[in-house]
Design a protein that fits this description.
This protein is mainly alpha-helical. The protein has one domain: Cytochrome Bc1 Complex, Chain D, domain 2 (Orthogonal Bundle), CATH 1.10.760. It is about 60% helix and about 5% strand. It has helices spanning about 1-45, 45-50, 65-70, 75-80, 105-120; strands spanning about 85-90, 90-95. Helix 1 crosses helix 5 (about 105-120) and helix 4 (about 75-80) crosses helix 5 (about 105-120). The chain is globular. The relative contact order is 0.15. The mean pLDDT is about 85.
């Protein structure tokens, strides 16, 4: 009988820890994305627009951008180092250079990338 109580308590503690870790990770992810939103609005929205739609044929859209969906790791490098040359996004060619962002830390860039992925590239768009 005592053994069964011990197992029940042990399972309860294990599941509590498991769910609290998941909740903590989700909370951290939300905090990162919120910081990413602030950075995006300050550093990116002027060209790519707050809704990620881009601007005419000058600045490519980020919302549902096939280029980013097909190259998920490219966004970090593009933000950090900039990009020169043409890029095709959703069937439209863009050829305006994007400047590098050397003042942003790697962590800040990670937060922008996380925000863009959640806001503009998730399947719920």
């Amino acid at each position: 009988m005592k053994k069964n109580k011990f197992l029940v308590i042990l399972c309860f503690v294990f599941y509590s820890l498991l769910y609290s870790c998941a909740d903590e990770k989700q909370a951290q992810s939300r905090a990162n994305a919120n910081h990413g939103l602030e950075l995006y609005e300050r550093m990116c929205a002027n060209c790519h627009q707050s809704d990620g739609s881009g601007f005419v044929k000058l600045y490519p859209p980020l919302k549902n951008a096939d280029f980013l969906k097909n190259n998920p790791k490219a966004l970090f490098g593009i933000i950090k180092y900039g990009m020169i040359g043409s890029i095709v996004v959703n069937g439209i060619e863009f050829n305006l250079a994007m400047p590098a962002n050397p003042k942003l830390s790697d962590k800040e860039i990670d937060h922008i990338v996380e925000y863009v992925q959640i806001r503009f590239l998730s399947n719920s768009n």
